[in-house]
Amino acid sequence: MRYYKEHLASEIEKNKEKDLVMYEQARFAVIGEMMANISHQWKQPLHTINLSVISARLSGYDEQKLDKSCDIIEANVNYLANTVNDFLSFFDKKSIQELKPLEDVIKEIKNIYLLQLEEAGICLKIDLQNNAKDIRLALSISQVILNLLANAKDAMQNIQTYKEIEMQFIAFDDYFKIRCCDTGDGVAEENIYKIFEPYFTTKDKTQGTGLGLYMSRQIVKTLFNGELYLDKNDRSCFVIDMPYDTNCRLEQR
Prior knowledge:
Blueprint: H1 2-58, H2 63-91, E1 99-101, H3 102-119, E2 122-130, E3 135-138, H4 141-155, E4 163-171, E5 175-182, H5 212-224, E6 227-230, E7 237-243, E8 248-250
Parallel strand pairs: 2-4
Antiparallel strand pairs: 1-3, 3-8, 4-5, 5-7, 6-7
Helix pairs in contact: 1-2, 1-3, 3-4, 4-5
């Protein structure tokens, strides 16, 4: 009996180590994509700042034109600083348990990913229902939502018609629901039971690790005591159900 207990304890520890390795792999994959997003998001503001500097030099000592150039530069510098703060907040392991208002979480996610969706011709709709504005969540939910957005974007890569992602945030009396739906073709029927397996991907090996959905489900289950699943009636919708707990709270006003 002692042997079996020790063997079981050893296997549990190995599984924890395996999950930790996969979690780190998933984080590094997201880091790579986010770094690409940073360079994308910074190009236009830096270009605008450069033009404003040139304009200021050419304006001579026209105070009105100088003030306008300075205002433009200040606005763009603030934008760049806020972008950096959003990315640092996302990757700071100390902050993943920090509770933030849902609206702040959504704002940070949009700052990180909205430009990439727009360049792919995808419209992002955000729908807050019931008392969703009063929800506070641990920041680790950001990684889950970003993974869902990335999957939805990839699912519509070859769609030539209107492309849209709709995210619904619904506060019920005893739990919180997030729905992420896209106008793609949905998950193929033969893949429905595989999509949450580690390392499963329908993309080229160079484009995906196959860990996004697996780790997202682990985060939802482990940190939020919730469930992440594919809507059986709509294979283009992923759903998160989370009971109100330490990392998901409905603030009563």
